[in-house]
Design goal:
Order of helices and strands: HEHEHEHEEHEHEHEHEEHHH
Helix content: 40-55%
Number of domains: 2
CATH superfamily of the largest domain: Bordetella uptake gene, domain 1
Strand content: 15-25%
Shape: globular
Radius of gyration: 26 Å
Mean pLDDT: 90
Distance between the termini: 84 Å
Number of helices: 11
Length: 331
């Protein structure tokens, strides 16, 4: 074959390859990767059903589903004060299909109260939406003969053996320890896997008290079975407006509210995280959703997405200070 002929054959082959490549590219562009999400999305709840976190997550999931065009599943993974759920989500693929309803306890409390947790509460997650906050209140049985906080303080100081408190969340542990320190009385810690379990044992008389989020305790307050004595927040709760704050009760300033942030695993694609941020912000701003959240004592609060990481970092540092001040050793 002559040089001229070989060159012609080579040029024809290259032209054929170029055409084929162009066709493949056109076909690839005509079938782009489907936009997220293409299957159900799961939000992991770090506590049992019946908790305020669970109720909030179900409201968010219900409103998020139509915005994403896919079912949004709520998956309760209770245990180890929420650290089991945190570890699961931290190790999940960063594709937007597994999220978590992070709380003050899981992302600020656990790192300060536990020697080891299976996640870094800041580095392992991408915040995608702040949902709101809820205060805690001291709850005792209505028939315990304790009508006011002053009654409780007198009982606690005189009690032999000491009164017992249940803590189903890190928040309840820190608030109860702080209360004991400020009133100068011993209170014996009884750990629980979840707040509703501690509340049930207060109702049955197995323990003397617990700090419970207002939303979870409200049905029992309304039914007259439990009495709320003090709120661990900067302001009173509108759902139990007659209950004073720590400062109003003469215990000094103190606030340790529960807060809720939807997070995704770190390195979640920016477009996926952005879509979640927009959707969650819209949900929290809806009047209907806001009313439903307030009905369970969660105050919906807008927070710019770029502020959330700094907020979570500051809360983690605040918890470190409070845990140290209360004399609690990590376990």
């Amino acid at each position: 074959m002559s040089f001229t002929r070989r060159a012609a054959v080579r040029r024809a082959a290259l032209a054929t390859f170029a055409l084929a490549s162009t066709g493949l590219g056109a076909r690839a562009q005509s079938h782009p990767t489907p936009p997220w999400p293409t299957k159900p999305v799961t939000i992991v709840v770090p506590y049992t059903a019946g908790s305020a976190t669970d109720a909030l997550t179900r409201i968010v999931a219900e409103r998020l589903s139509p915005r994403l065009g896919q079912p949004v599943i709520v998956d309760n993974k209770a245990g180890a004060n929420g650290s089991i759920a945190g570890g699961v989500v931290a190790r999940a693929p960063a594709d937007g299909y597994m999220l978590m309803m992070a709380t003050a306890a899981t992302h600020a409390g656990n790192p300060n109260l536990m020697k080891t947790v299976p996640y870094d509460s800041l580095a392992d997650f991408t915040p995608t939406g702040y949902c709101g906050s809820i205060p805690f209140t001291l709850a005792v049985r209505a028939d315990a003969g304790i009508a006011t906080l002053a009654d409780f303080v007198a009982r606690a100081k005189a009690a032999k053996p000491p009164l017992t408190y249940g803590a189903g969340t890190p928040s309840a542990r820190v608030i109860s320890s702080t209360l004991a320190q400020r009133i100068g009385a011993e209170l014996v810690h009884v750990p629980y896997k979840a707040a509703p379990l501690a509340l049930a044992d207060v109702l049955s008389g197995q323990i003397d008290m617990t700090f419970i989020d207002v939303g979870t305790g409200l049905p029992q307050f309304k039914a007259g079975k439990l009495k709320a004595l003090v709120v661990a927040s900067e302001k009173r709760s509108p759902l139990i407006p007659d209950v004073p704050t720590f400062a109003e009760a003469g215990l000094g300033p103190f606030a340790l509210d529960a807060w809720f942030v939807v997070v995704a695993p770190a390195r979640t694609p920016a477009d996926v995280a952005g879509r979640l941020r927009q959707a969650i912000a819209e949900i929290v701003a809806e009047p209907e959703t806001a009313a439903r959240l307030r009905a369970i004592s969660i105050e919906p609060e807008p927070m710019a997405p770029d502020r959330i990481p700094a907020f979570m970092k500051a809360e983690k540092e605040k918890w470190a200070m409070l845990v140290k001040a209360a004399g609690i050793d990590p376990e």
